[in-house]
TrEMBL record:
<feature type="domain" description="FAD-binding PCMH-type">
    <location>
        <begin position="17"/>
        <end position="189"/>
    </location>
</feature>
<dbReference type="GO" id="GO:0071949">
    <property type="term" value="F:FAD binding"/>
</dbReference>
<dbReference type="InterPro" id="IPR036318">
    <property type="entry name" value="FAD-bd_PCMH-like_sf"/>
</dbReference>
<dbReference type="GO" id="GO:0003824">
    <property type="term" value="F:catalytic activity"/>
</dbReference>
<dbReference type="InterPro" id="IPR016166">
    <property type="entry name" value="FAD-bd_PCMH"/>
</dbReference>
<dbReference type="InterPro" id="IPR006094">
    <property type="entry name" value="Oxid_FAD_bind_N"/>
</dbReference>
<keyword id="KW-0285">Flavoprotein</keyword>
<dbReference type="InterPro" id="IPR016164">
    <property type="entry name" value="FAD-linked_Oxase-like_C"/>
</dbReference>
<keyword id="KW-0274">FAD</keyword>
<protein>
    <submittedName>
        <fullName>FAD-linked oxidase</fullName>
    </submittedName>
</protein>
<dbReference type="Pfam" id="PF01565">
    <property type="entry name" value="FAD_binding_4"/>
</dbReference>
<dbReference type="InterPro" id="IPR016169">
    <property type="entry name" value="FAD-bd_PCMH_sub2"/>
</dbReference>
């Protein structure tokens, strides 16, 4: 029996990405096993799959021979509480990282895994206070296309070939190799949290920034006209800040988040767009014809589009405001006629990085910017 026979199984009807069926599926249980798998399957094109919560993001792969399922690459490798650091395997669900008195401040959809969150650079509402994936990721272990293992950051003093692997792999959509372990910066777990909910007004984000309330998140939903601010900390401190915000915004204090909090605004199978604009442009974006939902504190928001015309209008509006818009997901008939990424500076550099890390273009071919 060959190594491929030992490590893979035939794909079934559910083993497809963007409508492209795979031939084989592998579920490695360790970095070493993943390394042996990739060394034994040279010449096969690969897509990595975690929980599948964002598997429909991005274009479909041009070809797909092998799906690497990370569900058995799961669990906490180490928790250095005194250093506020944890090392976790890529297939670990975010919801499963429950550490005593400490918090990994990454918000993701139900079931989302660590590897998928890093690969798509997904950061939720609390990005305002704690930072995004690139800020919290301090170390990474990956398996390259040739099966070699590379580590950088965290407790590893020496980086690899001069590259900041963590930043390169974050948001790469699985096009550079297989992430197997991640080291993250932790924060003390807040003892108390409250929400202040109010009507969204154009001046509200600036008024919140001018107040000494240190919000963990400031989210808006322009469809409902609501704004919600998350405050975290000690009970007395949170209550004091909540009262101040309640008066400032003429809002209400609640222990519950609104139903739309952290939820994408598009329906299953719909067109989902990520929009990034400067903070000063958020009120104008929210006042436009396309409802948006997301962070008024970071300028990263999301929108549902009904078709190509709405996508182009939203993208043009975002560019005019000094930002950009990326189509995250769309049904096949729309996806095939859309420029999902829009104009991207530095594309030639991205191509050179791809050629360096994956010279045979076997990892997620065509899934990233410019067909990378």
């Amino acid at each position: 029996m060959t190594a491929i026979d030992e490590l893979t199984r035939p794909a079934n009807d559910d083993d497809a990405v963007g409508g492209v069926p795979a031939r084989l599926v592998a579920t490695p249980r360790s970095t070493a096993e993943a390394s042996a798998l990739l060394a034994a399957t040279r010449g096969l094109t690969v897509v990595v799959r975690g929980a599948g919560t964002k598997l429909d993001w991005g274009p479909p792969p041009r070809t797909l021979d092998l799906i690497i399922d990370t569900r058995h690459l799961s669990g906490i490798v180490e928790h250095a509480a005194g250093d506020l650091i944890t090392i976790v395997r890529a297939g670990t669900p975010l919801a499963g990282i429950d550490l005593p008195d400490q918090l990994l401040a990454l918000d993701g959809p139900a079931g989302a895994t660590v590897g998928g969150t890093v690969a798509t650079a997904t950061s939720g509402p609390r990005r305002l206070h704690y930072g995004g994936v690139r800020d919290l990721l301090i170390g990474i272990t990956v398996v390259r296309a040739d099966g070699k293992i590379a580590k950088a950051g965290g407790k590893v003093v020496k980086n690899v070939a001069g590259y900041d692997l963590g930043k390169l792999y974050t948001g790469s959509y699985g096009t550079l190799g297989l992430i197997t372990e991640c080291a993250f910066r932790l924060h003390p777990r807040p003892r108390h949290a409250l929400f202040v909910r109010a009507a969204f007004t154009p001046d509200a984000p600036a008024r919140i920034r001018g107040a000494a309330v240190v919000p963990a998140a400031v989210e808006i939903d322009s469809a409902s006209g609501e704004l919600a601010v998350l405050l975290e900390g000690t009970a007395d401190g949170v209550h004091e800040r909540a009262v101040a915000l309640e008066k400032l915004l003429s809002g209400d204090i609640s222990e519950m988040s609104p139903s739309w909090w952290g939820v994408p605004p598009w329906p299953a199978g719909g067109i989902g767009v990520k929009v990034s604009v400067p903070l000063s442009a958020v009120p104008e974006l929210a006042a436009g014809p396309d409802p948006v939902r997301g962070s008024a504190g970071t300028g990263v928001l999301y929108a549902a589009a009904a078709g190509r015309t709405e996508v182009e209008r939203l993208r043009a509006r975002s560019v005019r405001l000094g930002g950009h818009a990326v189509v995250l997901t769309a049904p096949p008939d729309v996806r095939d006629i859309l420029d999902m990424w829009g104009p991207v500076p530095g594309l030639s550099l991205m191509r050179r990085v791809k050629d360096q890390f994956d010279p045979d273009h076997r990892f997620a071919p065509g899934r990233f910017v410019g067909g990378i």
